[in-house]
Amino acid sequence: MSGPDAADRRVSARTRATVIGVAVLAVAVLVGLLVGPVRIGAANVLRWLFSFGDPPPGMSEQQALILADLRLPRVIVAGLVGASLAASGAAYQAVFRNPLADPYLLGAAAGAGLGATIAVAYGPSGALELTVPVAAFIGALLGVGLAYGLGRSTLGGGSTTSLVLAGVAVASFLTAVQTFLQQQRSETLRQVYTWILGRLGTTGWDDVRLALPSVVLALATMWAVRRLLDVIEVGDVEAQSLGLHVARLRLVVVIAASLATAAAVAVAGLIGFVGLIIPHSVRLMVGGSYRSVLPLSVLFGASFLILVDTLARTVVAPAEIPIGAITAFIGAPFFIAVLRRNRRAA
Amino acid sequence: MGRHLRTVVAFVLSLSVAACGSYDGSDDAQAGNVASPSSEPSSEPSSFPVAVEGTSGQTTIDERPERIVSLSPTATEGLFAIGAGEQVIAVDDQSNFPAEAPVTELSGFEPNVEAIAGFEPDLVVFATDPGDLGSSLEGLGITALQLDAAPTLEVAYEQIEQLGLATGHADEAQALVDDMRSEIEGLVNAADPPSGASFYYELDDTFYSVTSKTFIGQLFELLGLENIADEVGKGSGGYPQLSAEYILASDPDLIFLADKKCCGQSLETVAQRPGWHDLSAVTQGDVVPLDDDVASRWGPRIVDLLRQISEVAEAAEANAA
Hints:
Chain A is mainly α. Chain A has 14 helices and no strands.
């Protein structure tokens, strides 16, 4: 069935998809830099880009500032967040063997929301741009840790069902605590809400510095085990019989994916749907092997979020739309279109 | 420059229109079918029963209320400003002005009817009705008066007058409103001709702002200041979230921070934002923290707020000249 011909075809499909993915990402980055509420000529932007940030003659200092301090870090953060959410989604779907698993499944989002709420409501009001992301980060990791510990110890073994159930329970609990705290400090309600809707509007290089190490570490870890994900997806018993430490591998992947999610949530708030639609769209393009799905999810996830963020800041310019609202609004129809097209092709 | 001139002309025009609408003193005509204190025999403050007009309709108050609960910080300020403070037995947890207001744990956002009823009030004043607060209270035989966020200065005046009627302080309320009118008129006249200085009004540190359609936005418009958020289309509901790069490109003359308390913002924190340190408002020191509370209410202290804004605008104009 999988003779040399089929294998060749699969590899060439993967190569083609990778080339397309890189090209799309390059286009997305360019669009993200070119388009914004303030008009800066395309020629100027390109010259600025290829002189590595030296403002070309004819470009005002302010335009250079907008490109260097606002648009570029924002494009980078959007790319990191998109890549993190898409790759984490793919990884969770593999280790839980659940197509609906997404980066927020194991209490990461609820934990991050609680962390952010605590920071806004009880933290020092002067340093929110630092305390909120850090608290969200810690909250996301604690949420996942709690769910994982509960799933393993209380509900028996490391089975996927018990982990998912524990995640749901932990998420409900943390959300309840968050709601209670919000009621106690209703004057901070709006700030928490704004944060939860996604906050790329204030992105700067600080956010790049905050997210980059975790994202790189997490993506590298997932990349390293991408072949094993194919094995684990078949089944625990089968993987075990092939000599794989299933529970250990699952733990490593969950930690990596949660780290990436926590970093994404910390700098961008809660942005839903990316972790579902990107991996599934990629699977429809190149098949189910994680050797393809994982790297392509990174490329397309980054491109997708960069483009969506470009929309968020231009559609109603000079105002903005919360990015989380757009990802779902665009993501759902897009996903359905991909599904339909795939069925017709099959 | 042509654009600038047009803007100035537009603002002078809008100012004169606003002035016609607001300062001819004939508030009775504007009040329409609303019971107006000036039509009452003003020497008899205790003319009960009295019909008062709230946001959600007319309410009849049979006797002078002696146990008032206020769930609205704006109403609390109004009640104390018209001398009805002694009749107030409890105010909500956000009512932090004046200091003598009897703050309780009652919430105006998530009102608990049972907790409110526990105070045995004879009048409950509230702003937002998250569900059926008004009818629930009426069901318990408690008179409820809703005075929701005022869309215009006229409505803010009217609400103070209605509070006066409702509490038996119609004269004081009328005097307060007259005072506010003449003070605001004075400030507006002093700002004529308007400098046309542009400003960015910051609601929180994610760049939510207000347009001139909002209550607070109208105050700035009265002084002839140019709001950079007005560029945003009509669909934004008056409170758009602005793009950072748009704010930078607009380079407003003045920046008003209504997020000092909520988000700890100040000239220093604004100057530290990426790209903001070169803004003229930052280099000139024209980043002005406002009192978040005053700026989000529509009570008597808006006069102080308007005075602060006009002083800042004047100083900035003098600096630029």
